[in-house]
Amino acid sequence: MASPTALRPPAVTVLMPVRNAVKSIGAAVASVCRQSSPDWELLAVDDGSNDGTGEWLADYATREPRLRLLRQPARGIVAALNAGLGVARGRLVARHDADDEMLPGRLEEQAALFEERPELGLVSSLVRFGGDRASSPGYALHVDWLNSLVEPVDLAFNRFVESPFAHPSVMFRRELVALHGAYRDGDFPEDYELWLRWFESGIQMAKVPRVLVVWHDPPGRLSRTDPRYSSEAFFRMKAPYLARAAAGLLAGRRLFVWGAGRLTRRRAELLEGHGLRIAGHVDIAPRKIGSTTPAGLPVIGPGDLPAPSDVFVLGYVSTRGAREFIRGELRTRGFVEGRDFLMGA
């Protein structure tokens, strides 16, 4: 007969979808086994591996009873994640990838933050960039940006810029899946869509302000190879969420988009497809100020912006440093982020 301890569900389910990761799986699993808190189960969902990954996991499970292996035909990461969520036993679910590593205090520190702040539904952490900054400067700068966002207000204000979390760094209350839905499959990044959906539902999110995950950057990472993670896929997916958020803040005001370049206009048109009506654009380029867009909308300079009682501004410029500049300009004119403007680059 099993002991009461064996029958008790673990505090945390570490959910790790995997396909053909035999070269990295050992380090990923070892990092879970080194956790300072022993109250976990590692649920590995083998999504049709044919390189020996499934056999490696099955063998390891004979020595580590906390490792549970779920095997299925190759159906993709969303199917693997949702299959795992369907049988997870922990009240908290920690995502983990087969090519990343967690530091020893990760599970304990994230679970502790849930205890300290019961209003939180999702807790992430800072991450260490596990790639080469010289050869992947864009990815490294993205990690720096992720690590600058810790508190709920910062994460909420930046949720329309890019995904504010590294997927394998998040831990969330399992009950959120039943309340607000699991991962959705489609031509978009499944993790970012889930965070936006949960943000829209009012879920509070924060990070442990310490590095707890090493986020590697292998050439075969899905975010590099799968069209679902292209920049255009990101914009298409977040457009309805951004449009609804802006519509809820307009309060009868006119909507101006900061940025009048062709790419910004094209992406802003996605918002009009979800019911927003753009009244004009703001730009700092002298050749654009005073002109009109091909759609006939006026382009004004920052100094010509009406008061926040009359307009709501959506910052939609992706150039490095532009968000900081736009925020500064709007704040000096009395605009309050989250009330009078949002950043959505």
Give the CATH H-level superfamily of the largest domain: Spore Coat Polysaccharide Biosynthesis Protein SpsA, Chain A
Q: How would you sum up the major sheet?
A: 8 strands, mixed
Overall structural class, as computed from helix and strand content, comes to alpha/beta
What's the average pLDDT? 94
Number of strands: 13
CATH topology of the largest domain: Spore Coat Polysaccharide Biosynthesis Protein SpsA, Chain A
SSE arrangement, N to C? HEHEHEHEEHEHHEHHEHHEHEEEHE
Tell me which CATH architecture of the largest domain applies here.
Alpha-Beta Complex
The helix count comes to 13
Residue ranges: pLDDT <50 for 5 or more in a row? 1-5
Distance between the termini: 57 Å
Write the layout of secondary structure elements.
Blueprint: H1 4-7, E1 12-18, H2 25-33, E2 40-47, H3 53-61, E3 67-72, H4 77-87, E4 92-95, E5 101-102, H5 106-116, E6 120-129, H6 137-147, H7 152-157, E7 171-173, H8 175-180, H9 190-200, E8 204-215, H10 222-225, H11 231-250, E9 254-258, H12 262-272, E10 278-282, E11 299-300, E12 311-315, H13 322-332, E13 341-343
Parallel strand pairs: 1-2, 1-4, 2-3, 6-8, 9-10, 9-12, 10-11, 12-13
Antiparallel strand pairs: 4-7, 5-8, 6-7
Helix pairs in contact: 9-11, 11-12
